[in-house]
Amino acid sequence: MRPIRNTIPLDQAKAIIDRAIRPIERVERVTLLEAHGRVLAQDIVSTSDVPPFARASMDGYAVRAADTSGASRTDPKILRRIEQLFTGQVSTHTLASGQCIEIATGAPMPAGADAVVIVEDTDATDDQISVFTAVRPRQNVGRQGADIQAGHHVLRAGDLLTPSRLGAVAALGIPHLDVYVRPRVAVLSTGNEIVDPGETLAAGQIYDINKYTVSAVIADHGGVPALYRNVTDTIEDLSRAVDECLEEDVLVFSGGSSVGERDLILDVIAAKGEVLFHGISVKPGKPTAFGMIGGKPFFGMPGYPTSCLTNAYVLLAPALRRIARLPAWSRPSISLPLGERIASATGRHQFYTVRIENGTAMPAFKASGDITSMSRADGYIEISADVDVVEQGTLVDVKFF
Question: Fold match between 55-142 and 333-400?
Answer without folding.
Answer: no
